[in-house]
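Suppose you are handed a protein chain with no further information: no name, no annotation, nothing but its sequence. What can you learn? This example shows the usual starting point.
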Amino acid sequence: MFTTGSLLVPSIIVGLIGILIGGVINVLADDLPRRRRPSLPHYPDDTPRPFIAWLGITAYLFRKHESPNGIELSRRHPLTEIGTAALLILAMLSLTDDPLMEPVQFVFWIAYLSIFMLITVIDLEHRLILFVVIIPSYVIALIDPFVTTHGETLGDNLLGALMGFVVFFGLYIGGFVFTHVMATVQKREINEVAFGYGDVMLIALSGLILGWRSLIFAMFITVFLGALGAIVYLIARNLSRRGYSMFTPLPYGQYIVIATVLMMLYANEIAYAIRGY
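A reasonable first move is to predict its three-dimensional structure. Written in structure tokens, the prediction is:
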């Protein structure tokens, strides 16, 4: 699709597309968790943003990140746009090492990466993985094998979705059982569980995109990243002297997303690294 000697212009174009998509992601992340129809970009106090501030990057560059009422636009907005652009550029660069990759597959990758960025933003901010995002994503992933020929077969993808759902649904139920037991032992109410049902639906989406073979690696990576993230969180809490309250829920969706994206873009390299050749 691209040659290694002419990547500058495609990278700029893809980066600009990523920034625009990041702007759309920000709008959806602002409105969907509030159960409201997506509208034109607005400040946190619902004041409409001027056209120059529709993107978080331009809002900060032109000092339009504050509403007339003094409410600032979150730094999440420019960061999301930059992050989306970086993801799409990485996806494009990964195509240079695979001459068999079809251009249409990159279109699906853009859709997947955009969806994963939206899921991550909402999960980090609200600890929610919304069905209104997940269900249309299933439809896109089901269409993929009929349009492209480079990835897994539809059967492999469906098996991946089933595998991910069964494994994480077991963890989901196990979390409820563990929480119930601990609540009984400690004689206090505990309302949080390690895995939410949204995480179960998300890993099923990952399986539908990756297929069952790559999902196995993705699940191992997810567990490793989740454990590493929990350790970093504990260290940070102790260093800040704020301590840690047992059963404090930690967003898990971003680890599933990171593992899935890694397997999407670098499946062969990761498989070789894990197998030792």
